[in-house]
Amino acid sequence: MATLLEAISETPSEAPPPRPTVPGRPPGVLPYEINEWLDKLGKAVRSDDYPADVNQRLLYRLHPSDERIAMPVLAISLLSVRTLKNGNYSDSYTQPNVADFSADRAPKYYRDSDIDIVSQLRAHGGGYSFRAPPQSADLLTKILATGRAFLARLQARAVALG
Fold first, then answer.
1. Which pTM was predicted?
2. What is the pLDDT of residue 79?
3. At CA 80, angle to CA 144 and CA 56, rounded to 5?
4. Which of 44, 60, 120, 162 could link 149 by a cystine bridge, Cβ 3.0 to 4.6 Å?
5. At what angle do helices 137-145 and 112-123 cross, to 10 degrees?
């Protein structure tokens, strides 16, 4: 027992020296340059262009709301569709439910603009279709700018500003 107590009370002579800290920066906080680099790295991974190996797309279907109210309002439905080799969209699709959407867990085929749009739609609530009158003109402009907004039918031309 005495040997154990003696071993515990001794300080090792080969202990590593304490790490120097930068004055004014708490331990564990990364320098600005590294945070900026990490931010750029994260943005480089996902942009608004689709890589060749990603053939899934998030489309926005714009349609009158199904609700029976005196003043019709615009509803937005999200559709996940596969692109075919000829560039058209598949006839089959799924409707992502974004009630539990999290930007850090967004599917690989969501672009930066999609993450921004879906985050705003999620803030308005809903699951498969979003109707939060009035939808902001800025949000609708962002949706149209993707080039993946459609009125009712998917095989029609995408809706654009102008």
1. 0.65
2. 93
3. 95
4. 60
5. 150
The predicted-structure confidence for 58-80, as pLDDT tens digits, reads as follows 999 888 777 776 777 778 889 99
Token pair belonging to 122: 């999620």
| Other beta carbons less than 10 A from residue 60's beta carbon | 23
Q: Which positions ≥6 away from 82 have C-beta within 8 Å?
A: 55, 56, 57, 89, 90, 92
Give me the residue label for tokens 């714009």. Answer: 62
Phi then psi for 115, rounded to 5 degrees? -60, -40
Query: Cα separation of 71 and 106, whole Å?
Result: 34
Q: Is the dihedral of CA 145, 149, 151, 153 positive or negative?
A: positive
AA letter at 3: T
